[in-house]
Protein: Syntaxin pep12
Organism: Smittium culicis
Amino acid sequence: MIVNMIPWQSETNTIKELFRQVSELIRSLNNYKQNDRTKNLEQQKLTRDLQKLIEIFQNVQNLEAVKSRQLVEAAKQTVTINVSDSDSDANESSSLLTTAQAHSSGNQMRQLQQQQHQTNLNNEIYFNSSMIAERETEIQEIEQGILELNEIFKDLGTIVTDQQSLLDNIETNVNNVAIHTSSASNELTIANENHRKKQKTKNLILLFLVIVFIVFLTMMIS
């Protein structure tokens, strides 16, 4: 008898749904463009962390799918063997029935035991076949879930690329502002220097005029 190989399928579906919801939240958050480099870096880190978690979960899912397929194949072989045994037992029961007709009292108990064994074997074959079909359906769900996670992973990769482009633009803008600020500062320094030179020239001219006036006034008095 094979056992339930994927008892946590509902938890797996819950985890996949959480990944999907968080991915949508990150996408919505990414639509609000910000010029705050720190916040954008934190958002990018959050996205990459989610990518890592999805990648780990995908690896676990892949291993589970491989293991489940191996168990299903083993179970199929068991069912095949049981079917073969069942056919052999059926033939033996038929032979016993013929013999029992000739030796009714001696083989009746053995015949009943053989029939009970045949019934149990048939029930086990039916149960195992049903379980195999169920497990194969669950394996298909795992593989479908892996494909869905791949799509989420790709979407997050696109978001990371967009975030990096935004960060690069912010850095470029910051550098441009720094360059413009430096250029403006240099221009202001030059302007101040020119202003000081002009003011000095004016002062010299004024001083010269004062001296000329004093000399002229002295000559007039004399």
